[in-house]
Amino acid sequence: MNKRLTNVNEAMKILMGCKRLVVLSLASSFVGEELPADLGIVDFDGFQNLQVLDLSSCNLLNRITGSIPSWIGTLPRLCSVSMEFNLLSGEPPKELWTLPMLVSEQAATQVDRTPIDLPIFYPSIDHGRPLQYNYLYYAASISLRNNNLQGNMPSEIGQLQLLQTLDLSNNNFTDNIPDQISNLKDMEMLDLSMNHLSGKIPMSFTSLHFLSKFNVLYNNLKGPIPSSTQLQSFDASAFEGNLKFCGAQLPNKCQTTKGTDAPEGGAIFAIEYTKSLNKSVSL
C-alpha cells in the first residue's frame, strides 16, 4: 500500500533539523495542502546540506506570489528542484532563479556531486518484481512542468549558469523567451512547450552546444529557427503548433533573399539587376 504523508508544515519543521540531509523526496504526499510560508520554516541552519528537493505530484495548492516559498531559492547547496505536476499558480519568486549552487562555480566545487549510494525501488512495468537502483544521480535541474504558473519568463534565469535541465512546460508563461537563457552553456535539456510564449527564438541560442532535448511546441512563436548545428538538428515535432515558425525541417520554409527576412504580413520583393534587364520578382 502506498502511504502518503500529510501535514507538510510539521514535516518541514521536523526535517529541517536533519543537518546532514542531502536528498528530500516527498513526491505524491501532502495532497491538496499548501507549502509553508517563509516565516519560521527555515532558520539559519535549516536544510543547509540539502541538494535535491522533490515535491512533485502533490497537488499543492499554493499561489506562488512569494510562495514557491522564497526560502527554497536561498538554500546554499540546493541544485535540483522538482515541483512538477502540482496546482501551483502565480509567478515563481525571483530567488528561485538565483540558487547559489547554480550561479557560482566556486560554490559548486564545494559539493560532492558523485552519485549517491541510495537504494531506490520502482514497480516494474509488468507488475512483477520491483526494480532496484543502487545509486542516485541527479542533474542540476529545475522542473516546474504541469502547473498553472504565469507571468513573463524572467531574465534572471540567465544567472543559473550551471543549470543542465530546465522544464517549464505546460504552464501559462507569456511574452518573449529571454535572450539570457543563452548564458546557460551547460544546458542539456530545455522544455518550454505548451505555454503562451511569443516572439522569436533568440539568435543567441546558437551558443547552446550541449542541447540533447529542446521543445517549444504549442506556443505563439514565429520567425526562423536560428541556424545552428543544435537547433537545426531537432525534429519538426519540437516546433509544431507555432503556425508562424519557418525552417528547413518544417512545412513552412523561410522565404528570404540574400539575408533579408520577410516583413510580417508582406511579400519580399527581390530586385535583380543585370546588364541587359531589370527584373522585379514578387515571392
From TrEMBL:
It is found in: Membrane. PANTHER family: LRR RECEPTOR-LIKE KINASE (PTHR48063), RECEPTOR LIKE PROTEIN 30-LIKE (PTHR48063:SF112). InterPro entries: Leu-rich_rpt, LRR_dom_sf, RLP23-like. Its EC number is 2.7.11.1. Belongs to the RLP family. One of its GO terms (molecular function) is protein serine/threonine kinase activity. One of its GO terms (cellular component) is membrane. This is Putative non-specific serine/threonine protein kinase. The lineage of its organism: Eukaryota, Viridiplantae, Streptophyta, Embryophyta, Tracheophyta. Its main location: membrane. It is a single-pass type I membrane protein. The keyword Coiled coil does not apply. It is an enzyme of class 2 (transferase). Keywords: Glycoprotein, Kinase, Leucine-rich repeat, Membrane, Receptor, Repeat, Serine/threonine-protein kinase, Signal, Transferase, Transmembrane, Transmembrane helix. It comes from Rosa chinensis. Pfam families: LRR_1. Gene3D superfamilies: Ribonuclease Inhibitor.
